Amino acid sequence: MKDDKGFSLVELIIVIAIMSIILGIVFYSFSLMVGQYARECANNTSAALDKEKNYALAKSATVDCYVEIVFREKDGYYARYYVPGSAITKTDWVLDEEQKLGKHNVSMEFTIENASAGTTRNVTLDANTSVKIIYNRSSGAFKGAVIADGSDGDAGSLPNMSVLDSEKCTAIQIVHGRTYEIKLYPSTGKHVLSRVN
Contact, 78 vs 106, CB < 8 A? Predict the structure, then answer.
């Protein structure tokens, strides 16, 4: 008998099939790992919006309240929950709680619509920018959105509340490997989280 060296066609097909399965598992695991940070941040942001809406309906008495989403370099995204410090002055808000939303390597972009001007702009959150989303204390609807400079110096303060009716946050996109979107419905205060890709 001859001692032929090499692989038979059947052996080659089996090796290729096994390698394909292993590569498929590796790519799928990598895809899940990459999208995990975006999914986690999106879920936490959605929960933060729910939490502040509950604050508005239960804790804010006669004054509207808001959640501020901030970014800290090398630390990540945080939600700051503000409730009224006084139901009499209606101008001062106090930080009730702070919660981490996601890691610093995730990208978060807010879609802000101005109904009176008929314009839409996208605001990417960074260390110099924060977004304040104000809730109506009687209905839980989104009263408006304010783009702030992200510093602690303007914490607990808002512009004239009558200005807020024109600017509303209608969507938040969270991206890292995968893209998640939170659609906000200003008139009801509801939001829907979905995966874009």
Answer: no
DSSP-assigned states of every residue in 100-119: EEE-TTSEEEEEEEETTTTE
- Chain-centroid distance of CA 106 in Å reads 10
Q: Are 40 and 48 in contact (CB under 8 A)?
A: no
Q: What is the pTM of this model?
A: 0.78
Alpha-carbon distances of 1 from 4, 6, 8, rounded to whole Å: 9, 15, 16
CA 180 to chain CA centroid, Å, is 8
In the DSSP assignment, the letter for residue 9 is H
Tokens, residue 113: 């619509």
Q: Where are the domains of the chain?
A: 9-195
125 Rama sector, left if φ>0, alpha if ψ -120 to 50, beta otherwise = beta
Q: Which of 69, 83, 177, 183 is nearest to 132 (CA)?
A: 69
Distance, in Å, from the CA atom of 186 to the CA atom of 169, rounded to the nearest integer, reads 8
pLDDT in tens, 156-190: 555 544 445 578 899 999 999 889 999 999 889 99
